[in-house]
Structure formats: structure tokens, C-alpha cells
């Protein structure tokens, strides 16, 4: 199975800050990496597919980068509605696996 | 509107069975792979199972292999998860989710449409 190591597990930031979340995989996965946002009591929402492709409707302040085993989610200017938990997920091989999550809180 | 809606959750005793359903609407069901994902209370996400658009290929997470069976009826736009030999550690919210692109479970794309989840509680 492909292991996903996401960091940090939590962070505190202010509105307007640039925020970076990283995800490292135990095996090569090309660009088969997706990012989700989840708010309390809600289902996850797909933000980025194929490592860099922003989903329709997702704000342009979100971006993804990386390939192979190292990936990054960046929020260029944190907004109040961005306080949530973010997960990476590989879709390269089954079982599909998720990172442990990064909770973005208010500083 | 593209949506999926889960049903069938509930309280079951250890060793018991449940069948979850996922009703899809607003898209051509058989052209998309589908998955079940679960979330333990206050914790992260775990992929449970996936099925190709045709239903011919099925995949499972290690913790449910041999106990759960995924299937779909494309004539009814519905996916199922038959859960047998349930354990306390299967207690979770179970989400149904649609692949963003294509009929295969493994490709570069994520899961773009999720249901609201159905709660499964395994307890005596």
C-alpha cells in the first residue's frame, strides 16, 4: 500500500497569510494526487485533481504542485472560509489512500 | 443537479450485516467509477472500496477485504456496499463518492461529488 505523510498535522494562520501543506508518498505516483477540503459536519470537497488541476468552482488562491513523491497545496492568501481540514489522496493504485489531514486554524 | 445520496446506515450488532445504497442522479452513471469512503468520529478519511463504471472491476481496502462487497446496478443508477461480519471498528460515517473523470478507479483524478454520508454504528 502507498503511505501518505502529510504535514503539518495542524497550523495556525491569519487571514491574508500564505499557507503551505505538504504531502509525501511512500512510492512514486506520477501526478495521481488530489487535495480535498473538509469543514466540520460536511463531506469533503475536491479542490485539486492530478496534482495541479484546480476544480471548477474552487477559488484561484488554491494551487497544487509536485510530481513523483512530493506534493504541495498552497493557499496564496488565506480567507475566513478557508479554515478547515485539508487532505491529500493518491489515486495511483488501490487501495486508494489519504493523508492524515492538516487542520488550518485561526491564529 | 449532479448528486449522490446514501442510505441504509444504522445500528447493528457485532457480527451482523448491513447493505448501504448510493442513489445517483444528474449524470450518466455508468461512465464513472464510484467509491465508498468512511470517516471515523473526529478522525481522518479511509477509502473503503471502489468499482469501475461497468461494474466489472472491484477493489477493496485491506481492513474490509473479504467482509464487504461493492456492486452497482447501472439500470437503477445505484451503487451498493454489502457489509458482513461487522466489527465495532467499522463504526463510521460512510460516504459515497463519484470519480471526477472516467470509468476507472485508478487515474489522476479525484472524487468530485460526495453524498452527505450515512452513519453505521456497530455495537451490542
What brief labels describe this structure?
heterodimer; A: 107 residues; mainly beta; 7-stranded mixed beta sheet; 4-stranded antiparallel beta sheet; 50% strand; B: 124 residues; 49% strand
Commentary on this structure:
- The complex is a heterodimer of chains A (107) and B (124).
- Chain A is mainly β and 107 residues long.
- Chain A is 0% helix and 50% strand.
- In chain A, strands 2, 4, 5, 6, 9, 10 and 11 form a seven-stranded mixed β-sheet that branches. In chain A, strands 1-3-8-7 form a four-stranded antiparallel β-sheet, with no helix packed on it.
- With 124 residues, chain B is an all-beta fold.
- In chain B, strands 2, 4, 5, 6, 9, 10 and 11 form a seven-stranded mixed β-sheet that branches. Chain B has a four-stranded antiparallel β-sheet with strand order 1-3-8-7, with no helix packed on it.
- Chain B starts with a strand and ends with a strand.
- The model of chain B has no long low-confidence stretch (mean pLDDT 97).
- The interface between A and B is medium-sized, with 31 and 26 residues.
H/E series of chain A: EEEEEEEEEEE
Percent range for β-strand residues of chain B? over 45%
- Determine the fraction of residues in helical runs of chain A and give it as a percent range: under 10%
- N-end to C-end Cα span of chain B: 40 Å
Mean pLDDT score of chain B, rounded? 97
Low-confidence stretches of chain A: none
Rg of chain B (C-alpha, Å)? 14 Å
Largest sheet of chain A: 7 strands, mixed
Number of strands of chain A: 11
Amino acid at each position: 500500500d502507498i503511505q501518505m505523510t502529510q504535514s503539518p498535522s495542524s497550523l495556525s494562520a491569519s487571514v491574508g497569510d500564505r499557507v503551505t501543506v505538504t504531502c509525501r508518498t511512500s512510492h512514486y505516483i506520477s501526478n495521481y494526487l488530489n487535495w480535498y477540503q473538509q469543514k466540520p459536519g460536511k463531506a469533503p470537497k475536491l479542490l485539486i485533481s492530478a496534482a495541479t488541476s484546480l476544480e471548477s468552482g474552487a477559488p484561484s488562491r488554491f494551487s497544487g504542485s509536485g510530481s513523483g513523491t512530493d506534493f504541495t497545496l498552497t493557499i496564496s492568501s488565506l480567507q475566513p472560509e478557508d479554515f478547515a481540514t485539508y487532505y491529500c489522496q493518491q489515486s495511483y493504485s488501490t487501495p486508494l489512500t489519504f493523508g492524515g489531514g492538516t487542520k488550518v486554524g485561526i491564529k | 443537479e449532479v448528486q449522490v445520496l446514501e442510505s441504509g446506515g444504522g445500528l447493528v450488532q457485532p457480527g451482523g450485516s448491513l447493505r448501504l445504497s448510493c442513489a445517483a442522479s444528474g449524470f450518466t452513471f455508468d461512465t464513472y467509477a464510484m467509491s465508498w469512503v468512511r470517516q471515523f468520529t473526529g478522525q481522518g478519511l479511509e477509502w473503503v472500496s471502489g468499482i469501475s463504471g461497468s461494474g466489472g472491476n472491484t477493489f477493496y481496502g485491506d481492513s474490509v477485504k473479504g467482509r464487504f462487497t461493492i456492486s452497482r446496478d447501472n439500470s437503477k443508477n445505484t451503487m451498493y456496499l454489502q457489509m458482513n461480519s461487522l466489527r465495532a471498528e467499522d463504526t463510521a460515517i460512510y460516504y459515497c463518492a463519484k470519480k471526477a473523470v472516467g470509468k476507472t478507479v485508478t487515474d489522476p483524478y479525484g472524487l468530485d461529488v460526495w453524498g452527505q454520508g450515512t452513519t453505521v454504528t456497530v455495537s451490542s
